[in-house]
TrEMBL record:
Nucleotide-binding in keyword set: yes
Pfam families according to UniProt: ABC_tran, BCA_ABC_TP_C
Ranges where the ABC transporter domain occurs: 7-239
InterPro entries: AAA+_ATPase (IPR003593), ABC_AA/LPS_Transport (IPR051120), ABC_transporter-like_ATP-bd (IPR003439), BCA_ABC_TP_C (IPR032823), P-loop_NTPase (IPR027417)
Record's keyword terms, sorted: ATP-binding, Nucleotide-binding, Transport
CDD domains recorded: ABC_Mj1267_LivG_branched
GO MF assignments: ATP binding; ATP hydrolysis activity; L-isoleucine transmembrane transporter activity; L-phenylalanine transmembrane transporter activity; L-valine transmembrane transporter activity
Name the UniProt record assigns to this protein: ABC transporter ATP-binding protein
One annotated Gene Ontology cellular component of this protein: plasma membrane
One BP annotation, GO: L-alanine transport
SMART domains from the UniProt entry: AAA
Tagged with keyword Cell wall biogenesis/degradation: no
Length: 239
């Protein structure tokens, strides 16, 4: 018997007081897969992330994680199951050090401070921030703060990480480094769904791309297929 996909979304819809943000979205994510989630502004990408991570309860549809129905779960329960996320506008603890920020994530798996510290040090090294461990988070650059948030998410030991515009606002060198980081996360056996507008950062590394427009999925395929899809081209060019 084949194992279930890591994540399965079936007919998901989300409305806010009559405003439909997501409509009848279905897709699956496999273990260790890198999937780009793209679409014009207002297409419903962040709302979908919020439903997957337990911040919103879907109005319709079902979300399954490793075969378990998690529709309407809480962020805490989703994290415990192995779903972590970052945010379009980074949400770090500015008055804490970089190390302390990542320890917060590590405490999900171990309440022993020594264990959490060790795990946090490992993840800071993984994202290239060991030299900033004792710096206050507010003193980090935008690029470093984004990596710090990734490190904190990784410290929760996820099976799936939802990355919300980790390349936005970065220069070309930083975009390349962010792409390499996503690839190294994949090599650890962790799946990624990446909301991104920086196409040169996501297209070369994604195994598959999902495209939303007006809250609905309009395409699902390889980056090469998506680049030539007439519906996707029309959505971006307004044709």
């Amino acid at each position: 018997m084949n194992a279930p996909p890591l994540l399965a979304v079936d007919g998901l819809g989300k409305a806010f007081d009559g405003l439909v943000a997501n409509r009848d979205i279905s897709f699956i994510i496999h273990h260790a897969e890198i999937v780009g989630l793209i679409g014009p502004n207002g297409a419903g990408k962040t709302t979908l992330f919020n439903c997957l991570a337990g911040f919103h309860t879907p109005t319709t549809g079902r979300i399954s994680f490793e075969g378990q129905d998690i529709t309407g779960t809480t962020p805490e329960a989703a994290a415990a199951l192995g779903i972590a996320r970052t945010f379009q506008i980074v949400r770090i603890f500015h008055s804490m050090t970089a190390l302390e920020n990542v320890m917060v994530g590590a405490m999900l798996r171990s309440k022993r401070v020594a264990d959490a510290r060790y795990r946090a040090e490992q993840e800071l090294a993984f994202v290239g921030l060991s030299h900033r461990a004792d710096n206050q988070a507010s003193d980090l650059t935008v690029s470093e703060q984004k990596r710090l948030e990734v490190a904190r998410a990784l410290a929760t030991e996820p099976k799936l990480i939802l990355l919300d515009e980790v390349m936005a606002g970065l220069n070309q060198t930083e975009v390349r480094e962010a792409s390499q980081l996503v690839h190294r996360i994949h090599q650890r056996g962790i799946a990624s769904i990446i909301v991104e507008h920086v196409m040169e950062g996501i297209m070369p590394i994604a195994h598959r791309m999902l495209v939303l427009d007006y809250g609905a999925k309009i395409a699902d395929g390889t980056p090469a297929e998506i680049a030539e899809n007439p519906a996707v081209i029309a959505a971006y060019l307004g044709e």
